[in-house]
TrEMBL record:
Belongs to the MYBBP1A family. It is found in: Nucleus. Coiled coil: none annotated. The keyword Phosphoprotein does not apply. Residues 698-743, 761-774 have a biased composition (Acidic residues). Its main location: nucleus. This is Myb-binding protein 1A. Keywords: Nucleus. GO terms for molecular function: RNA binding; sequence-specific DNA binding; transcription corepressor activity.
Amino acid sequence: MSSKISHKVDKSILNKFWQLAECNQTKIIQASKGLIEDLSLRQVDESTGISEELQYSISRLVKGLASSRQSARHGFSVALCQILRNFPSINVDMILGAVAEHLKFTQKESRSEQGNILLGKVLAYMALVQSGRITSATQEHVQKIVQSLVQVCQKRSFLKQISTYAISLIVSQVNTEIFKAAVWSEIEAELTQGWTGCSPDTLMLLLACQKYHPKMVDKTFLKTYWGLPKVFCAENLKNIWNVLKLSIEFFPVVHLINDEVIHQLSTSKISFTDFWTEGRDLLFGKEHHSAVNVGLYLMTKMLPHLKTPEEIECLLPANVVKVLVKIIDGKQKKKNPVYESATRFINGLVTYVKSSENAENSIKVLHCFFETQCPKGTHLTRSLDTIIQSLSSEAAKKYGENLMKVFKKYIKDPRENMMGIQHVATHIRTLVTLPSTSGDHAWQLHLLQFLGLHSFWTVKAKSSALPHCSYCTQPMEDKLRKPFQDNFLKALSNLLIYNTEKSKTSSLDAYLDTVCQLCKYFQDLVEASEVVSLVVDFPEDEREQWVKTVVCLLGMQEKSAAKSPEKSDLHRAFMLLFVFHALHLFMSKENAVSTLQDIHVCYNKAVKHKRRSTVKSAKSEPEWIEVVTELLLSMMSQGSNFARLAAKTTFSCLTDHVTPDSLGLITDVLKLEKGDENELISFEDEDENMMENASDMEVGDEENGLSEEEKDIEEEKSEEDSGDEDESEEEEEEEEEEGEVDEEFRNAVKSALGDAVDKSDSEEESEPDLDDDDMFKFDEALAQVFKNMRKTKEAEAKENKKQLLAFKSRVLDLVEILVKSQPPADLTLDLIFPLLELVASTEKLKEGPELDLGKRAGNMFRMLYKKAKIHGNVAVSRDRYLQALNNAIQFSTKVTTKQIVNDVSDACLLVIRLLMNLDLGSLGPSPMKTRSGKAQKEKKVEMERDQDSVHQLVIDSVQSNLKDFLQKKKQKLHTEFFYNMFSKFPVLFWPITETLLTTMQDDQAKVFMKTQACYLLSGMLNKDVEKNIGEETWNEFSLSLIAGISRIMRGITKEAFPTKLIHDVCVTMRKYLFSSQKPLEISSEITEKLESLRGSFNTDIRKEYNMMMGKLGRTANLNQNKQAKKRKNKEKVALSAQTPESKKAKQSQIEDIASPVVKKKTNKGKQTVHGTVKQGSQTGNSSFELDPKASLKKKNSESNTPGGSGKSKKKNFNKKNDSITE
């Protein structure tokens, strides 16, 4: 039946079955819904029976349940269940009949195919049950289904769980009468075995029967066969765990009995503590994956039901936490079922803590983890940090105090409690930056004092006057104290970037107040030598510098509030520098004292300094900002995150004090190449050595006292013996290279040679000659030694390159801070070229960290282009601006990528804007703003004249390069370079249009040059230009433009058709027409020429041409001409059958239809679309006179344009354009 129906089934229905088999749950649901909708449309009246499409669908779905293709079983079972729910006319007999027809054994199936058929039967029965149809089934139907399911359990053990689940669903839906007659008889034998032969499936059936049919499975039955009147009671916990242990065999699938057990526990009087204590060792004792998987699943299900800290402590004992940590942070694959179960538990734990209202429960969860003496990896540490971040203020403070109490216990034996001490330090560091305690700076100080004390001191005597010194501590080893110091610095860095207040400035002030109090606490510890002892030596000079710094910090803290905002930023910067380097007195002592001394000197100079230096000049000593910048660069090169954050924060407070010299220190780093960092360090020494060698040579010549003749003789000898000298130089180089070999390499060579090594320099001792085999062996050994040496050098070079890129990336952070602060003109000029050079250096790369660095530098330059401070008080010489402009133009010849070319073009625009004080939105030069008043008028006029002269200098510079480009003298300049500038500031560069128009009218210019000129000219045309340059200038330009285009069109033929030139001509004309308020006439010479060339147009040219002619109002004429040609072609056949007279009449009618609407008039002026241009005097001037009729035609044409009014006319215009394009 199905084969006959398949020819009649609609294709849309057939496609749904393919979608049902896809491995996508969303698509399966959509396909099943679509199938139901399609079948509902065809099943109009259920009283007349079932439609053929529905019959076909049922047959195909039942048959497909045995398919192993993709997700066919899943999708087909979903669709079958939905059909049974939506079509009541389908009875149980029909489904059972389809099962009997399509899911039966033959003699051809293999064992695996038979298993697929059995699984298909189970799924079909499940669809009947889950759709609710089993409730309307007869007793015979139910018994038949149950018998079939029991047989499946007996034939295939892997199908026993799903078959038993299907029977339990039937038990839950049928009434007691049918259950007793049709179901009980099939399962009674299994349920009467008791705990002896109880399996997870048996317990599932027993619980279902007890729940839904308590009269059949009552207390008497349970006591008779199961020993007790209740299944879930304290006495049966051991038996229940034995059953759960058997469910381990289903790994990686978790048996449904586990969910049912947790559900029964939540409703019984058995506590989760008793249940978990009874059986957790069975799952986590031997750490088998299958057992641990079930244990983690049970823990995840129990977690939401736990109410007290005692229950949490029972759930997470030490052995369970160790297994959990080993799975989460071990080498388990992420797709491993055990890893997925552990991840689900951790996520559930985070959710539990967030939703818990009891702070004690959250604290107990954290205690269970850090009390376990085992290392914790990144994943678990992050999860615990998430839990801590969700603590309330009360819970956080309780947890912090508890951690300090635990530390007091651990510190009695640091070696035995090493991991616990590390966990305490880590968790306290996390508590410093909590959302719930962000505004409690006293609490943050309390935690920082604890971390700082145990990072650098050992408490040797109790003291109640000093916080955290109420108990003595044992000395910690360096490997244990180092994590404490790391967490202390990390807490400081996290708090530095954490917004504890509403604004960043107030947060920084609060941070500085906190660390100043921390330094005061450290000073108290330094003075209390009888209570605490430093773990490092603290000489007198360091102690003196420390005290001086703390006194200065406290004084700055008091004065900073009363100073101006600028001084406040200055104080913030130096306070942060003092704090960072003062704390390093207790850790890294290298140059710590001298650095602090330099900071003190810089601070004293900075507070006395009134204005920053804006001009590079010779000076005996560097400015304070230069010293600070070098110090910040040193901090950026360090591996400490706290050092880099402190450097960036300090620099953000000092952006108003940056000078060109100090900025040069930063940009020099961006210019470093591979190996240059070493050259910069030793550059001065190398020069000195060279000078010393040169002076030695001069002294030697004088001492020898050679005459001129003797020198000539020596020179002749040297020329004759040049070959010998070259050989001797090579030998000397080899000797030098040999002398530079390190001891490690020498030992490697000796090891390779073995006994053949020359152990003595004496010539009397001679070694026996080696044969060829021994020599070959030595050759191989030596080759391996040199190969290893080369690999080592390559690895070192690769590592140095990696470190250089990382340092450049960090320095770019400082540049980004400066760019965002809107730097003045002099600093902007100093930033442009280092950024562009960094971008250009990665132009040819496709991937890698260097390319990422270049992209970042490019984004930074574009930000600088937008944020540069145009109107500033910094005076920069005009020559420097012009030099920068020329350098940018020359730089554009070194790049080829369009984006970088545009960036260099923007660099030219930025220099011009700085030179002329033009804002980003300005179209051209404008007078500088000055104060009103008679005294200022003369100065204003003088400034306007100065700006005009500057404007002319800019035009001359750009125009000279443009002429060279158009005359092919400079091949490396790019068209996009000029186009970007002209299109963004057309009014500024408007005088250059004369050069472009001259090139267009030059008959000697090549087509390519004319194309470039036309393209650049099109970029300068927009709606605002005419208004800004004036009507007179615009009219002169219009005449020259039309004349130039007419001259170009005269030399173009179909045989020599320059596609790009014609396209740019059309673009220019279209932009001119749309930009001009009263455009001049487009001569008929141009339009007729373009019309004659239409057959050669490509799509782009045709599009521009149609827009241009539409603006001229000639779209209708063109459309009529095209339609006339079509009618003419269609009537050729009809004309051939007519008489000559009728042919002539018909042809005349066609010509009348195809004739233009607007006819030429014979008058003195020339008829145009918009007006009449009358010839003037012999001087060549032209006057523009508006013709009323022409203006009317203009209005009609404009109403047909996209900008005109009238929706119907606009629609006709679009249709005409489409027809022309076609």
